[in-house]
Records
---
Amino acid sequence: MAYSTAFSQAVSILLLIHVKMEEFRFEFVSAKVIAECLKAPVPTVVKILKSLNAAGITTTKEGAKGGVLLAKPISEITLLDVFLAIEHGTPLFKTQLDYFIENPQVDDLKSKVINCLQDAEKAMKDSLKNTTLADIYKLR
């Protein structure tokens, strides 16, 4: 698999921001506070926040009272939104299947393996698209 742990970290970060926004009535949450709450290195949190901000999932404010807010309600943020913000279209499976045998049967098998893996990735993305952060938040 080619995916990083940043996806699950991003989901945790977004849910924490949501909780803090409710708790503090829409005040910005700093990367330092997020890092402390999740016991994660500040540079890791900052890198993830940059990706989420670039995707329009969060918004940031500079300065002493700055930090990050969710750009939209958690009911409008799907796991697929988060996934695409973090993984930037990286495929789940590496499908560079180079065989040194020239044979139509081998080519057919290679094609079937690639199609199977692509179908699995599509099913995963479809599942992520059908789950919002609000769905996860309700499970707590």
Note: The chain has a mean pLDDT of 87.
---
Amino acid sequence: MIGATLVSLFLLALLAGMPLAVGLGLASVAVLALAGFDQLAVPTNLYAGIAKYPLLAIPMFILAGMIFERSGVALRLVRFISALVGEWTGSHAVVAVLVSMLLGGISGSGPADAAAVASVMLPSMIARGYPKGFSASLIAAAGSTAIIIPPSVAFIVYSVMVPAATVPALFAAGLIPGIIAALCLLIPALLISRRHGYGRGERRERPPLGKSFFEAIWGLLAPVIILGGLRTGLFTPTEAAVVAVAYGAFVGVFIYRSLELKGLFRILVDAGELSAVVLMIIGIASVFAWAGNTLGIFDAAASMLVAFHSSPVLMLVSINVLLLVAGMFLDAISIFLILLPLLVPIAQTMGWDLVWFGVMMTINLAIGQFTPPMALALMITSRIAGIRMEETFRWVLWFVLAMLLGLAAMIVFPELALWLPRRMGMG
């Protein structure tokens, strides 16, 4: 009865149009009061939910992503990749995917990655004859892979909620699936571009390779420094985020000279506002998770689901459908906070590797970021392109199907995610 009350109040709050954090908080406070708990448990668990060392990386990676975006790193990376790839039918679609992967190795956030690439790539793609709907769809899909490619904010949150899956192991496990996801997007992008002749028109002057490489070298070094430092043990994932901020500020202020004191202050304010929203959701969702666990709601629900789905295959299919649908309406971090208390006991009962399970969940949520009707990343790129989201539907469905094939490959062959962490002694 209490479990039904907790879920019902939360769903009613969402249907009433309340913000996610408010809905979680109201449901948690009401259920704890009904169960006779002291209301001091609410602020105590809210603080405990965010007072975790690994979570310090989230505001730092958000700040790092904004610094790299506004310092001109994305523009220089586009020029270098364009010089490397050249000018041919569909070449700019390839550039968009490759640049998104590189920026994903810096920001760890899908919407931030999509916004940075869209602001630079959309004008040049449209000028070369790519439809706005196709361009916005491709960039949204490619940007969403940022939460799979390390460093990933989603992996950090997952590790905090599932201590058995460490951040270094998750980062290593996400590398190969992230590359596969990018390849899955490249195939339909190239096929569509060649069929319709996108980019076949007037040839533009190819940027000089040597010059563009030296201009982009500082951006290319960023993921090398971050991932290399993590691999060698020079710093922890949380310290890596601080290193990324310091490196980005150094490049923007002293190398490119594109950031001034006023610009840095604006970036700090914007990053602070976004980080506050994310951490507030995490804190209040921690109260929701604590209430469900303390009252035995999630364990009872997990046991019921396991008894209902005796087959691991049916259970896996059900979980993936649930995650795909949830990803269409909520962001990845919110879904982790709401569903992990329910799904982790199921994964443990089924004997699934929790690192592999985390990667599988994250790929599902990456797909949700560019799958209508909500599709946060697609919403951002559509707005930058100046079109309605409906104009992207005929294109984005091909990229959703391609990513689903990549997800299926990772599920059927778990070693795609687990081979690298085991090779590095993390599995």
Note: Residues 114 and 143 are 4 Å apart (CA to CA).
